[in-house]
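[job 4471] stage=fold_predict status=RUNNING
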Amino acid sequence: SMDKYSIERTCGEGTFAVVYAARASDGGRVAIKKLKQPVPSWEACMTMRELRAFKTCGRHANVVGLRELVLAKQELYFVFEFLDSNLFELISKSPRPFGEDVVRRMAGDLLHGLQHIHSRGFMHRDLKPENVLCDRDGSCLKIGDLGLAREIRSRPPYTDYVATRWYRAPELCLRTTVYSSAVDVWAVG
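[job 4471] inference complete, writing structure tokens
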């Protein structure tokens, strides 16, 4: 149940969910993503692509960890490890461009996480700095928000309108409905 978590503040809100910073009863910090749509049952949860993606792709140093899933009164909560910041904030707040060594390490983190997601048969489809979480110092990047993730082996046509415009691969800009995990590699670039 959600009784063991106390919500501290709202971190963000999207079309499908609200994300809160919260504290667990053991004192640890967590991020809680609450879906806006009611979820009638656990059976309905099992059909959700995002849940399949996290169950399959979790447990990697460069992918945000899903601690638990709570279904209470038809409301579904994803409880994630808490990270202070994201790559967008890190870039925005940096007084000067990152050095080559930092960029190399960050690119390595991203590519390791992505390789893990791809090797588990998923493509992320919405990689952007806001979806790359980290501590305030940016010491370890973790890929988050698998809300648009899709199985690579699933059959086209795929939705053509994915990925935030600035990170969208050329084939997506050309509105193709047949594409591959290469769209994630483009987004990293």
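[job 4471] summary: Strands lie at 5-13, 17-24, 29-35, 66-72, 75-81, 85-86, 122-123, 132-134, 142-143, 150-151.
[job 4471] exit 0
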